[in-house]
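We close this part of the discussion by returning to an individual protein. Part of our work consisted of pairing the sequence of a single chain with a tokenised description of its backbone. The amino acid sequence and the backbone structure tokens for this protein are reproduced below.
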Amino acid sequence: MEKELLLQQHEILEAEYVKLLNDKDILLSWGKPQLEALYATRIGVHQINLLQLQLRIKALRRKIELIQAANTQQQYNVDEIEFIVAQELAHAEEKIMQQTGVINAAKNLLSNLDTPQRSAEIKALFKQFAKQLHPDVNPDLTTEQMELWLKINDAYKYGDLEQLKAFEVVYGNELNQLKIQSAALTASEILLRNDVMKEGIKILYQQVNEIKLQYPFTIEEQIRDEEWVAKEVEKIYEQITQLNNYEKELVTNYSNLINSNE
């Protein structure tokens, strides 16, 4: 096969490979966090209220259980019972606090999203860099070039458009040299790279499809559906209403037990 035809195939494969790399990264670094943040702020925040109520009920039931199990002939220490229950449920309370932290982080993420134009520019620059510097596309990178690729990855990860633009200006000549070097490869070297890239494309297709079959992508349509969200929130508050009444009963029961001990 002529070298010119191999180079044409290489360009096609390279473009598809970089596109799939970009698709995979967008799903994991952009899509997944944003969908999780949407779920957390639209539904998770209400689930926290339910979990907090469930924990209070669990604590009350445990306190009542300890009082009823105590020797009725002796006075029991209410403060001691409160302390025991607090210790027993500390782990559950810590998990709720962690989930609350996740929701606060989600709110922060959604309030600091880049504009569509800025995001598009960041992704376009990264895609351009990947064509020259991604190790799967160019396995002959020098140590310095690999270090540059790592820096570019960091800038992309943190959405630093200005840094990516600076890399484009500072290292533009070196990146052009890489392109020239690729064109200087022998036909057998290009053929080998093409074969490797074909296999890489198959793997990336599979990985992208697998990611789309995982949470939160499996409920992406529902998360963005205001009607579905409203129904889910309504279900949560139906539970909260029922449990609020049960909590009041437990509070009354617990107060009566404490008063009878005085």
In short: The longest helix spans residues 3-69. The chain has one domain: 3-260. The chain has a mean pLDDT of 88. DSSP finds ten helices and no strands in the chain.
